[in-house]
Amino acid sequence: MRALFALATLAAPLLLSACGDPAPTYIDQAWIRLSPNKETPSAGYFIAHGGDAATQLRGVRTDYALKVEMHESVSDKGVMSMKPIDSVDIPANATVAFAPGGKHLMLWGVNDTAISRGKMQMTFLLANGDRLLVDAVIQKPQAAGATPPTTDGGATH
Ligand SMILES: [Cu+2]
Question: How far away, in angstroms, is 83 Cα from ligand 1 center?
Fold first, then answer.
């Protein structure tokens, strides 16, 4: 009887120490497809990796654009359109992709300094209170004047 009691008290600390550090949610592969003109918004993409606990992405902020929104592309009877979304579920241990044709960020007024640097820092706000700082690579549009030179014009001399 006494031996059994001793065993029970020994077991308690072992149970407590079994909890490790939970894996956090994180973001990677963030990039921005820069709009060819300043009047139309640019699009942002990334991958969210869920940690051990499910959470939600509640918004994205940056000092390097005037406004950022989360959007979802939807197809209604074959017509593509997009609508703003307030939050996105990030299930535990799952990945959620913001990718062309699906969920994406819209960024208005991307800052010239960020464009010349080729990247901008963004802050991802999670429902669990975490704020994740991520550098997004800015991909510039293909040069608009990339048409073949016409100096010869194909004419024969
Ligand atoms: Cu959009």
Answer: 7
